[in-house]
């Protein structure tokens, strides 16, 4: 393990933890501008986390240890997921230990823990939100795997660092299959991050909320960790999309000077991606929960088409 690789790994973790709430604040600010509303401060997520960490955590009387430990497990899974996604460099010591399949497994592990914690207290809202969350995950995970597999066919590897090195550090080539994969990935990202049209993170209506229903019983530092983990998940999915479909600007393992330019490039790409997410959410309407299987089924079909197109054109 080189000192440069260790530095890049620590830098990726620090960037994810520090910039994830900022990305959430940027998306919320852009949504308010596009909807002609008074925009909240860009630092509002940091202020909310600061307030929650200084509040006392109120736990239900019959809550088990699972309910108390779930926020720490979910937060740890999201930090680990961000650490194996190449955001500023491909020289990551943790990358060989986990590929794209393990990355999806980390998201699934976090989902299982937060769903079990929601059902642990025994409230109606928590159980309803857990069932809906597992339904979304059951349909979204296969589509996400197919998207990652379609990109892995180009590099003959399921490692994200290898995929980025193949796409970014070679001659410019147009892959038609990635167009289908890109649309499928956007649909999966909206569902996995509880965004419009699948869910609305700003609502508390009991008939429509999914993510918010699972965390109604949390407060204090537990709620802060869950909200921080949600921001990290949005950051992780944004970085996956940038790594697969816009990998330019990520430093090579043998180009240490490129690290100086990788961070501004990452922030610029995240700013554009967050604005496009806000535009997409402002132009969309919240769909009924019964339409979500059709939505994610379409994403799965598009991801399978991406694989088939690449296999047909590579012959």
Q: How would you portray this structure in words?
A:
It is a single chain. It contains eleven helices and no strands. By secondary structure, the chain is mainly α. The radius of gyration is 19 Å and the shape is globular.
List keywords for this structure.
69% helix; 315 residues; globular; 11 helices; mainly alpha
Share of helical residues:
55-70%
Q: What's the tally of helices?
A: 11
Please tally the β strands and state the result.
0
Sheet of most strands: none
Instruction: Report the span from N to C terminus.
Output: 39 Å
As a percent range, the share of strand residues is under 5%
Shape, per Cα inertia axes = globular
Sequence stretches where pLDDT stays below 50 over 5 or more residues: none
Q: What's the pLDDT, averaged over the residues?
A: 91
């Amino acid at each position: 393990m080189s000192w440069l690789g260790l530095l890049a790994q620590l830098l990726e973790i620090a960037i994810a933890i520090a910039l994830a709430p900022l990305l959430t604040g940027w998306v919320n600010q852009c949504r308010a501008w596009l909807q002609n509303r008074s925009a909240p401060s860009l630092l509002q997520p940091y202020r909310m986390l600061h307030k929650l960490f200084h509040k006392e955590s109120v736990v239900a009387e019959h809550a088990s240890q699972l309910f108390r430990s779930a926020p720490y497990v979910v937060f740890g899974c999201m930090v680990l997921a961000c650490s194996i996604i190449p955001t500023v460099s491909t020289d990551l010591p943790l990358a060989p230990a986990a590929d794209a399949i393990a990355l999806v497994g980390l998201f699934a592990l976090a989902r299982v823990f937060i769903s079990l914690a929601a059902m642990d207290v025994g409230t109606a809202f928590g159980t309803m939100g857990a069932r809906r969350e597992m339904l979304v995950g059951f349909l979204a995970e296969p589509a996400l795997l197919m998207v990652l597999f379609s990109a892995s066919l180009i590099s003959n590897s399921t490692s994200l660092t290898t995929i980025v090195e193949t796409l970014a550090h070679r001659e410019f080539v147009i892959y038609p299959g990635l167009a289908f994969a890109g649309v499928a990935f956007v649909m999966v990202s909206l569902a996995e991050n509880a965004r419009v049209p699948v869910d609305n993170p700003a609502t508390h209506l009991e008939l429509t909320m999914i993510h918010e229903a699972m965390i109604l019983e949390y407060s204090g530092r537990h709620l802060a960790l869950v909200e921080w983990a949600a921001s990290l998940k949005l950051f992780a999915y944004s970085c996956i999309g940038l790594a697969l479909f816009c990998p330019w600007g990520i430093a090579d393992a043998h180009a240490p000077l490129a690290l100086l330019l990788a961070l501004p490039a990452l922030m610029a790409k995240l700013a554009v991606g967050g604005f496009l997410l806000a535009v997409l959410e402002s132009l969309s309407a919240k769909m009924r929960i019964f339409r979500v299987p059709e939505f994610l089924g379409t994403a799965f079909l598009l991801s399978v088409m991406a694989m088939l197109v690449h296999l047909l054109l590579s012959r």
